């Protein structure tokens, strides 16, 4: 399989899975060993010790765990508070957020739809800015999961100590200096427009790599998280950029969840993130379109199984899963089939949306990458469905953080009843919302 710049990378294998008491469906096992830039797998050796240590720029030791700064403000005084080396700042509560309201008795829930993006790099294709602008155009908010090393210059790559890997090793390319600058600008604009900045962690290590996140301990996940914060909070020190103002948000306040590369390692990740005050995780490998529940006290937002090829089977709601099913994972499949594949993708998204919109109103989760696989058809599919979905009556295209806020103000008994609904089941709402 080749990446966009023609480099070879190891193809990912597939697997099928079955859920107890549910129909079998096709999914991609480590689904998605791809990040938002061209992917290169590096030959790395495993150090004898995994307790890697690097400077975080604020006196704490990366890889040893840390106590986050207080993330509450008694009262916002309207003044920007510069943090650390000036890379970030606190500018008060984020503006334009959905105001969560408890459902009234008999009220039909909004149809929430979350568009999320793994990696969040502004590359030469300008896909970050494209979807940020689409979100603004259609009164939507999205979740952009930033990869921490996309703010770390390649010349400083040895600052990254990926768990069970040598310093500087990563399964993705480091960003160019120009792309770092462009990404910083998009992060600023995305936040100002009400979008969420989450984390996609750092090195994107996936199975069959023995040092993949699936094999990380709780402490190793904490090391990965600490390093994400370090790169995000100290980009001025690491890049030397003096002409770029501080980002208008504090990562330790803003980041309330993330998605693990390849959807791997959630059990230990959930244990790790509790100490950081995170409220949700989007790393679960997939489920049917049902109302979310909590795992280990954290909201679990899995990718979802959508009707595929007219309902012949269910496919995961991510671009790489469509890529695998249509061109066996090849990023440059048969161009003669691009039109057919794009329409298949659109039809699957719309079938999944209509199933819950006219049924249980379970939130719909779509997770993609900023990639132009198969001629960009998966991006074009998203371009088609955003206007069709986000403009419908009762639909709220929101971030995961906004959805978390809404879920947290609902009555637990109401959420329990919502979770009993089948995706296509349109109930008597007076019996569900009481």
How would you sum up this structure in a few lines?
The protein is 29% helix and 13% strand. The N terminus is likely disordered.
Describe this structure in words.
- It is built from twelve helices and 14 strands.
- It has 434 residues and is α/β, with parallel strands linked by helices.
- The protein has a domain at 110-402: TIM Barrel (Alpha-Beta Barrel), CATH 3.20.20.370.
- Strands 5, 6, 7, 13 and 14 form a five-stranded parallel beta sheet that branches.
- Mean pLDDT is 86; it is low at 1-66.
Largest sheet: 5 strands, parallel
What is the average per-residue confidence, as pLDDT, rounded to a whole number?
86
Supply the helix-strand structural class.
Answer: alpha/beta
What share of the residues does DSSP label as strand, in percent? 5-15%
Q: State the share of residues found in helices, binned by percent.
A: 25-40%
Distance between the termini: 53 Å
Q: Architecture of the domain at 110-402, according to CATH?
A: Alpha-Beta Barrel
Distinct helical segment count = 12
CATH fold-level topology of the domain at 110-402: TIM Barrel
Query: What oligomeric assembly is this protein in?
Result: single chain
Radius of gyration over alpha carbons?
21 Å
What is the N-to-C order of secondary-structure elements (H for helix, E for strand)?
EEEEEHEHEHHHHEEEEEHHEHEHHH
The fourth-level CATH homologous superfamily of the domain at 110-402 is Glycoside hydrolase/deacetylase
Number of DSSP strands?
A: 14
Shape: globular
Low-pLDDT regions: 1-66
CATH class of the domain at 110-402: Alpha Beta
């Amino acid at each position: 399989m080749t990446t966009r710049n023609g480099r070879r990378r190891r193809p990912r294998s597939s697997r099928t899975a079955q859920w107890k008491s549910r129909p079998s469906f096709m999914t991609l096992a480590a689904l998605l060993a791809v990040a938002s830039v061209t992917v290169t797998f590096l030959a790395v050796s495993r150090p004898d010790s995994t307790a890697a240590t690097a400077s975080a720029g604020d006196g704490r030791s990366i890889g040893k765990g840390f106590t986050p700064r207080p993330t509450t403000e008694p009262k916002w005084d309207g003044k920007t508070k510069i943090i650390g080396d000036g890379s970030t700042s606190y500018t008060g509560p984020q503006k334009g957020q959905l105001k969560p309201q408890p459902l009234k008795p008999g009220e039909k829930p909004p149809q929430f739809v979350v568009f999320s993006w793994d990696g969040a790099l502004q590359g030469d294709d300008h896909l970050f800015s494209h979807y940020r602008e689409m979100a603004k155009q259609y009164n939507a908010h999205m979740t952009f999961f930033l990869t921490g090393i996309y703010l770390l210059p390649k010349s400083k790559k040895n600052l990254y100590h990926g768990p069970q890997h040598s310093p500087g090793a990563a399964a993705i390319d480091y960003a160019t200096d120009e792309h770092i600058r462009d990404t910083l600008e998009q992060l600023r604009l995305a936040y100002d427009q009400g979008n969420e900045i989450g984390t996609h962690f750092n090195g994107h290590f996936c199975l069959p790599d023995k040092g993949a996140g699936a094999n990380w301990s709780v402490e190793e996940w904490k090391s990965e998280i600490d390093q994400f914060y370090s790169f995000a909070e100290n980009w001025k020190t690491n890049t030397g950029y003096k002409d770029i103002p501080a980002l208008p948000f504090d990562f330790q306040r803003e980041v309330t969840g993330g998605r693990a590369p390849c959807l791997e390692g959630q059990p230990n990740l959930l244990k790790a993130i509790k100490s950081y005050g995170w409220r949700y995780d989007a790393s679960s490998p997939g489920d049917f379109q049902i109302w979310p529940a909590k795992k280990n006290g954290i909201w679990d937002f899995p990718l979802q199984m959508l009707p595929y090829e007219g309902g012949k089977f269910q496919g995961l709601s991510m671009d790489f899963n469509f890529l695998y099913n249509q061109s066996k994972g090849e990023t440059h499949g048969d161009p003669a089939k691009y039109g057919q594949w794009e329409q298949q993708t659109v039809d699957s998204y719309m079938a999944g949306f209509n199933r819950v919109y006219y049924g249980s109103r379970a939130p719909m989760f779509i997770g993609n990458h900023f990639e132009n696989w198969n001629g960009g058809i998966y991006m074009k599919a998203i371009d088609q469905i955003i206007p069709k979905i986000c403009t419908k009556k009762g639909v709220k295209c929101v971030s995961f953080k906004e959805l978390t806020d809404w879920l947290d103000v609902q009555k637990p008994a109401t959420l329990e009843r919502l979770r009993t609904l089948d995706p296509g089941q349109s109930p008597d709402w007076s019996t569900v919302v009481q």
